[in-house]
């Protein structure tokens, strides 16, 4: 049985579906079973737990051979933070998996560093370090920014900052395919896989592309950096917006794909057209 923490989320939902389609049994960990309803019969079991509560993880671990961590605490319900979920919560998950004798596949981000201006990237760095130092057989999957998430965030043509910094975007569908491989191929233990898309694109370019795909002719507006700076001390999102507007977010995905060269690498146009086909009209 595979335990997917974060199995209710954007990536986790796709991973659960892929594992179930292979005939694998999947237990989904969630803080609220109502959030797992859309999974239907693809999840063999739903278990209530919180990565910040070690005892709830130990209770979810029986019969588990591999744990997937697709959680994050950047945003979302339940007063989450990168420190409590991505750093300390992942440490709990790894320790619980170790006690149960399970492997761990950890979702992380391209660009982790203890010095990153992004709190999330520092927390993911700590999670990776904890996992590597454990006795657990591990695979780390680092991804760039999910283009489908940004398509959802940018329902209005608004760009944070100047929007001229190139960023690597990846389709979450491609990341799910790599996670499925990481779960099912024990030959990938001890490896860090980096997944990106073929394109580095600025937010101005992404906003223009979204407008093209959606047939939207509204003027693109910007939240100026000065406004982001003023909001930054109180709020994680403008801090991240400022970082994404200024730090190197590019990535050479083709060079990183040797370990999974047969899996798809979807271009942004195709990913956005697919996502847009499923969007509800405003
Ligand atoms: N989004 C991106 O651009 C991006 C880029 C690179 C890497 N990643 C990584 O990919 C993974 C999935 O991201 P996503 O955007 O698909 O996530 P998402 O849709 O925002 O879902 C977040 C998930 O985290 C779970 N979660 C949050 N706090 C939790 C807690 N305290 N205990 C247990 N579960 C908790 C939520 O479960 P419940 O609410 O059901 O409890 C939910 O399933 C994450 O590890 C993320 O860091 C994301």
Write the layout of secondary structure elements.
Layout: E1 2-5, H1 10-21, E2 26-30, E3 45-48, H2 54-60, E4 66-69, H3 82-100, E5 103-109, H4 119-133, E6 138-143, E7 145-146, H5 147-153, E8 158-160, E9 167-170, H6 172-184, E10 191-195, E11 200-201, H7 203-214, E12 221-223, H8 225-231, H9 236-246, H10 268-277
Parallel strand pairs: 1-2, 1-4, 2-3, 4-5, 5-6, 6-10, 7-9, 8-12
Antiparallel strand pairs: 9-11
Helix pairs in contact: 1-6, 3-4, 7-10, 8-9
The structure holds NADP nicotinamide-adenine-dinucleotide phosphate (NAP).
Written description of the protein model:
There is one protein chain. The protein has 282 residues and is an alpha/beta fold. Helix content is 40%, strand content 17%. It has helices at 10-21, 54-60, 82-100, 119-133, 147-153, 172-184, 203-214, 225-231, 236-246, 268-277, and strands at residues 2-5, 26-30, 45-48, 66-69, 103-109, 138-143, 145-146, 158-160, 167-170, 191-195, 200-201, 221-223. Helix 3 (82-100) runs parallel beside helix 4, helix 7 (203-214) packs across helix 10 (268-277) and helix 8 (225-231) packs antiparallel against helix 9. The longest helix has 19 residues, at 82-100. It binds NADP nicotinamide-adenine-dinucleotide phosphate (NAP). NADP nicotinamide-adenine-dinucleotide phosphate is lined by residues 5-6, 8-12, 29-32, 35, 50-52, 70-73, 76, 80, 85, 89, 107, 109, 143, 145-146, 149.
């Amino acid at each position: 049985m595979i335990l997917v923490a974060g199995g209710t989320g954007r990536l986790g939902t796709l991973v659960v579906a892929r594992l179930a389609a292979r005939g694998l049994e999947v237990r989904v960990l969630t803080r609220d079973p109502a959030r797992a309803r859309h999974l239907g019969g693809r999840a063999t079991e739903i278990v209530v737990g919180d990565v910040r509560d070690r005892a709830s993880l130990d209770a979810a671990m029986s019969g588990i051979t591999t744990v997937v961590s697709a959680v994050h605490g950047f945003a979302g319900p339940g007063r989450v933070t990168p420190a409590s979920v991505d750093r300390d919560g992942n440490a709990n998950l790894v320790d619980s998996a170790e006690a149960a004798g399970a492997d761990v596949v950890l979702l992380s981000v391209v660009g982790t560093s203890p010095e990153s201006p992004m709190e999330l990237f520092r927390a993911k760095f700590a999670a990776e370090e904890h996992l590597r130092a454990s006795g657990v057989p591990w695979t780390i999957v680092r991804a760039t920014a999910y283009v489908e998430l940004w398509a959802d965030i940018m329902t209005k043509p608004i760009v944070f900052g100047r929007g001229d910094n190139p960023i690597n975007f990846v389709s979450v569908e491609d990341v799910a395919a790599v996670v499925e491989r990481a779960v099912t191929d024990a030959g990938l233990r001890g490896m860090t896989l980096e997944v990106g898309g073929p394109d580095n694109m600025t937010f101005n370019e992404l906003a223009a592309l979204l407008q093209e795909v959606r047939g939207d002719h509204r003027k693109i507006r910007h939240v100026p950096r000065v406004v982001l700076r003023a909001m930054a001390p109180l709020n994680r999102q403008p801090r991240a917006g400022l970082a994404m507007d200024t730090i190197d977010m590019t990535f050479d995905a083709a060079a990183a794909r040797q370990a999974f060269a047969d899996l798809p690498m979807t271009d942004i146009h195709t990913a956005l057209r697919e996502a847009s086909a499923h969007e509800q009209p405003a």
